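As a warm-up, study this chain.
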Amino acid sequence: MDETPGSLRSPAIAHRLEREQVLPGMPEEVFPFFADARNLEALTPPFLGFRILTPLPIEMREGTLIDYSLSLFGFPVRWKTRISVWEPGVRFVDEQLSGPYALWRHTHSFERRGAGTLMRDVVEYREPLGPLGTLAHRLFVARTVERIFDYRREAVVGLLQRVA
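Now compare it with the structure written out below.
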């Protein structure tokens, strides 16, 4: 069995969030919006105080490192991710190298669906601190991750309409 951290087959993955939505435009038209790191702040709910620290513009490709700051439950947090997979027009994967989770792997995929694009987010994550992390997941982390992606779902439609 593959024991690599973040591997899809890793037994360490505790939680998985999946979201899908159909967006107007073909994948080759929609993908560049998500590939532009400047759009991350607009896709992230204000309650996180999310800011990109890496100087912009960021050249997105496999191996790109991005630093962020945010606030989780009132505590300032630094987060560093690496783009581990980069397939323009199809998918990309960002994985946390350092930050609030023991594991965070977010796969963004795009496929043609009729006259639009099916965008799929799959987030595999695990909290740190063993049993305390499990308790935190039940009490508030799962709900917070869902709120983040609920916000993203609504924000992306409006933002794409402005870009079109």
